[in-house]
Structures are given as C-alpha cells and as structure tokens.
Amino acid sequence: MSRFVEIRRDLHQIPELGFEEVKTQQYLLNYLRTLPQDRMEMKIWRTGIIVKISGIKPSKTIGWRTDIDGLPIIEKTGLPFSSTHEGRMHACGHDVHMSIALGVVTHFTSNPINDDLVFIFQPAEEGPGGAEPMMASEELREWMPDEIYALHIAPEHPAGTIATKPGLLFANTSELFIDFKGKGGHAAYPHETKDMVVAASYFVTQLQSIVSRNVDPLDSAVVTIGKMTAGAVQNVIADHARLEGTIRTLSPEAMDKAKSRVQALLEGIESSFECESEIDCGSGYYQVYNDPEVTGRFIQFAKEKKDIQFVLSREAMTGEDFGFMLKEIPGMMFWLGVGSDYGLHHAMLNPDESAIDKAISFITRYFTKLGHV
Ligand SMILES: CC(=O)N[C@@H](CCC[C@H](N)C(=O)O)C(=O)O
Fold this sequence. Notes:
Blueprint: H1 3-12, H2 22-32, E1 40-45, E2 48-53, E3 61-67, H3 94-110, E4 116-122, H4 131-136, H5 138-142, E5 147-154, E6 161-164, E7 167-170, E8 172-181, E9 185-186, H6 196-214, E10 221-230, E11 236-237, E12 240-249, H7 252-273, E13 276-280, E14 284-285, E15 288-290, H8 292-304, E16 309-312, H9 322-328, E17 331-337, H10 354-371
Parallel strand pairs: 3-4, 3-5, 5-17, 6-16
Antiparallel strand pairs: 1-2, 2-4, 6-17, 7-15, 8-12, 8-13, 8-14, 9-11, 10-12
Helix pairs in contact: 1-3, 3-10, 6-7
The chain binds the ligand CC(=O)N[C@@H](CCC[C@H](N)C(=O)O)C(=O)O.
C-alpha cells in the first residue's frame, strides 16, 4: 500500500468538525516535520496550516488548497479503518484531499521548481467556512499565491478521471436555520395551543414553491431542509421546532430572490399559525468560478496525459468556500474521480484509493510544468 493511502486511512479515522481539527492539524504537522526542511516554512492559522516551499528562481507563487474538516455523520462503511470519532466522518473526501496535498508537498520538498509553492490546509469547509477568514489573515496575506488550484473528489467518475470546466463550477450557497416558537400543551387540547410541528411542516411544504414558482426557470436553485427537530414526547404539542437547511443558486440574483421569498413565507406562517419565528442565514459561500485562461491551460495539459481521462463537466449545486479564494486569485478547481457507489455526504462513501497516487503524480507534473515557465 502506498504511503499516502496509509496516511489517508490514518486521517479517515480522526474526522473533526470545522475549527475543531486539533488532532488532524497535529497529524499533518507531525508528518510535515519529517520532510526535508531546507526550503520549507510553515505557519499555523487557527486549526489550519500554511506551508511554503521556496523556489529556485521564483517569478510567482503557485497555490494549492486542501480542506481538512469532516462531517457530523455516523459512518456505516464497516471498513477496518472507519472513523474512531463517534458521529463524525470524512464523508466528503477531505481525508483523500489532505493525503494528496501531503503527497505533492513531499515531492516538491526534494524536487524544487523555479517558482514558490504555497499549500493551504484550510479548516471548516463544510461550515462555518475557513477560506474567507483565512484569506483576510496576515498569515496568508504574506504568502498570497498569484494563482491557485484545488480539487474535490467525484464519486460518480472512475479513479483516473479529471473533470472540470471554465467559468462557473459550483453554486452560491447560504445556510438556513429557522426556529418556530408558539404555545405548546396537552395533545388532547390542540385548540388551546399553537402547534410548532404543524407550523414547521407547512413551512417546509411552502418552501418547495420557491424553486418551482419564484426562481427563473432558466436559472437554477435548490432549497433543502436537511434537519427538522421538534417536540419532546408523543402526547405533548410542541412549543418549538427548528429547521436546518441550505439554499443553492447558480446566480447571486437568484440567491437574493430565494432569501426574500423565505422571509415572506415565514411572515405568512407567523400570521396563520400565530407563532414567532427567528431566521439565521448562517454562512454563505461565494460561487466557484474557474478562471477561463488558467482552466484552458489546465484542460489542455490534462487532455495530453495518457494516464488521465479528461471529462468536460457541468456546473454543480455543491458549494465550496474555495470560491472566496478564486474571487481574489486567478485559478481553478477540478473534480477527481474516485468511483464510489455511494455519493458525497453519504455514510457509505468509499473512495477508490488508487486515485490518490494518480492525482499526486498528475499535480506534480502540472506544477513542474507551470513552475518552469
Ligand atoms: C463540496 C461540498 O459538499 N460542500 C458543502 C459546503 C457546505 C456549505 C454550507 N454548510 C451549506 O450547507 O450551505 C456542500 O454541502 O455543498
């Protein structure tokens, strides 16, 4: 088994949520300290790390970003290296992303190129978002890349596939947290109460009209409620209900429209169910927009490589706070095929690990070409 597959398995066992990546950070630091240090410098930013490898004759800085957090999911893969953290799982492939980043760092510590390289191990991609505050940090501003790259695993493509497109790749996102408060009471006396299970349920149903009736059909949007909590016991009418979800849109205008409709529907629920509500839009991510020139160059390179299958992809409604980096730095993101029967955010996601060494080899060849120009 390759060293980086072993690393992926180690990291897979210790998933941590955004800004709690303490063991993950320590694991990464321990590994990075075993590498030749003569060209390498490191900085800590909260639970993240920034690594710089100085080039031989630098004219620019090339950046690579990996995310490092896991999800609040109970793993059901049954793998011998399953998560040892109860209720936490690397179900979005960040363990694979990190092992690939370490593989690329390892290569360039012994094979420097002309240009400087900066590797960003970024916390909290799944939420509340590490990229935006990291971009504003002094630590990263001092080593700001001139162009930047990142990947995300793609379960639907076989290992060895790279898929991307110029322009818009991932959606604009906004989290959504809504609390409903009313007068609870005995299950047998509904007329004396304001039932928050019923209010929240009507609201979830009404939300479905935003995509079907408010967003321009030629635009695209998603409104998903992923979590609904209410009540304490079977024979008490609930005085509180909470919904947690996310809005995704391809255009910033559709996001504004969707949010204003959520607000209007809430006001309707408050008046028809005589209750109060509180809305919190949590964190929002800027769309991932691939720089057309950088992406064109990347696609050309990928198409020439015999060991890579290149696929021109479509936009996806996934979100990625890497969008905040691409807003300021020209660069691009691509999908890396890992052929899994179960998709992202699924408790049975099981990426094909052969993609790890393929990706390391591809990225090191690409950066070597870029860094010598
Ligand atoms: C690639 C991926 O799956 N990213 C996440 C980002 C989540 C952002 C935020 N917590 C939200 O739900 O809006 C995704 O769910 O797309």
